[in-house]
Specification:
Layout lengths: L18 E5 L3 H13 L3 E5 L2 H10 L4 E5 L7 H11 L4 E6 L2 H5 L10 E4 L4 H11 L4
Parallel strand pairs: 1-2, 1-3, 3-4, 4-5
């Protein structure tokens, strides 16, 4: 089930787990992604809204944030911009069913974020995380 992840598979952290904030309003997607990320050695905190995610982000340290673009209330891109104001070097993966909006650069240059096109496989998720963390 967890085969063919990435050219440079995610290694479990021996000196503490990397922390990921996962933000998605789809409970099923969040549960499966959380399990996969935990299986690969990450500590995962979840949120179902942009507003809640920003509050959590201000209170805790994260190595990476995975944001769904289509969140209710504050969307993923606006949430990412707010998080960058707090910590400009935070690594962010934007997940969307229509990545052309993000890639078009209308609101923000796409080179500031890693993009994960929905629907994605678990292998693509782990590879996106690895790429964002600079491991692939």
């Amino acid at each position: 089930m967890f085969s063919k992840v990435c050219a440079m598979d995610v290694k479990r952290q021996s000196s503490g787990k990397k922390k990921i904030l996962l933000v998605d309003d789809d409970a099923g997607v969040m549960d499966v992604c959380t399990q996969m990320l935990q299986h690969h050695g990450y500590e995962v905190t979840t949120s179902i809204s942009g507003e809640e995610a920003i509050d959590i982000f201000y209170d805790m340290h994260f190595d990476l944030v995975i944001l769904d673009m289509g969140l209710p209330g504050i969307d993923g891109l606006s949430c990412a911009k707010e998080m960058r104001k707090q910590k400009n070097d935070v690594k962010i993966v934007i997940s969307s069913g229509n990545c052309s909006d993000v890639l078009s650069g209308k609101e923000s240059p796409c080179n500031c974020f890693h993009i994960l096109q929905k629907p994605f496989t678990m292998s693509e998720l782990i590879c996106a995380v690895s790429n964002a963390m600079g491991r692939c």
